[in-house]
Design brief:
Layout lengths: L5 E11 L2 E11 L2 E12 L1 H15 L7 E5 L2 H8 L2 H7 L8 H10 L5 E5 L7 H14 L4 E2 L2 H11 L5
Parallel strand pairs: 1-4, 3-6, 4-5
Antiparallel strand pairs: 1-2, 2-3
């Protein structure tokens, strides 16, 4: 293990897709560990997977150390590692979901030396399992934030959600 490496483990959850959801994060640096989790009243699994990565990066107080992000989300990792998100950006995100979150990520991306590692979900990886529990629990917590961008998108596309 590299001593000056920030390790970030993330997971997202949605009960119903869309539905109540949340994200869980475990961050580790120089032997210290913190956990972060937040629930949303209406969201999607992919939004929560991406939100976990964004919130983790926004939480960092410095960018002078390399960051390794572990995720079970092929959506997030492939979009970044295969460069899809940078092409989506060039094309104005036309027809792409989660534009608001991708734009938020793209503001953070150049500030950090980030690498990603995909981990198989629900496969006994201790930190991924912990993030899954965190995300699952906050999705049922009743302590929800409102994913305003998503809910507005849903209203426009499908009509009122909470009628």
């Amino acid at each position: 293990m590299v001593q000056n490496l920030v390790e970030i483990f993330t997971d997202g959850s949605a009960k119903g897709n869309p539905g109540r959801g949340g994200y869980g994060i475990v961050m580790r640096f120089k032997g210290k560990e913190i956990e972060i989790a937040q629930g949303y009243r209406m969201t999607t699994n992919n939004r929560m997977e991406l939100m976990a990565v964004i919130v983790a990066l926004e939480t960092l107080k410095t960018n002078k150390y390399p960051v390794k992000i572990y995720s079970d989300s092929k959506y997030v990792i492939d979009a970044i590692e295969k460069g899809w998100v940078f092409n989506w950006q060039k094309k104005g995100f036309k027809g792409k979901k989660n534009e608001d979150l991708w734009k938020r990520y793209l503001k953070l991306h150049p500030k950090f030396d980030i690498s990603f590692e995909w981990v198989r979900g629900h496969n006994g990886h201790p930190e991924n399992e912990r993030c899954d529990v965190l995300a699952f629990n906050v999705a049922d917590s009743g302590n929800y934030l409102v994913d305003e961008f998503f809910e507005e998108y849903q209203r426009k596309e499908k009509g009122p959600l909470f009628g």
